[in-house]
Amino acid sequence: TRVQFENNNEVGVFARLTNSYCLVGIGGSENFYSVFESELADHVPVIHASIAGCRIIGRLCVGNSKGLLLPNTTTDQEMLHIRNSLPDSVVVQVSQPILIAACLDVRY
């Protein structure tokens, strides 16, 4: 299924998908969310969230099935929402942006 976020094909900017969860940025069209939910909801939780008030969560965090690193600009409310929505097995930590950038180059 093809999906766009406000006429933008770069959906990875607005979403972070692992085999344990899917984070999607808030503020997209209902069609954007419905594609993720219809394809993934039976397998992983689809979580609507923002990071530092932004929707480009795919670029602001890094994660895999075991953990998620968020930038230190993440608000406490955003952190709690994300942590409470993820499976208990996923460790969520707030980190300095340089560590997140370094992790983008790591392959698991």
From TrEMBL:
- Gene3D superfamilies named in the record: L-arginine/glycine Amidinotransferase, Chain A (3.75.10.10)
> Which Pfam family is one of those matched by this entry?
eIF-6
What's the source species for this entry?
Guillardia theta (Cryptophyte)
Q: Which UniProt keywords apply?
A: Initiation factor, Protein biosynthesis
Q: What is the lineage of its organism?
A: Eukaryota, Cryptophyceae, Pyrenomonadales, Geminigeraceae, Guillardia
Q: Kindly indicate whether the keyword Protein biosynthesis belongs to this entry.
A: yes
Protein name from the UniProt record = Eukaryotic translation initiation factor 6
Q: GO terms for molecular function, please?
A: ribosome binding; translation initiation factor activity
Q: Name one GO biological process term.
A: cytosolic ribosome assembly
Give yes or no: UniProt keyword Protein biosynthesis.
yes
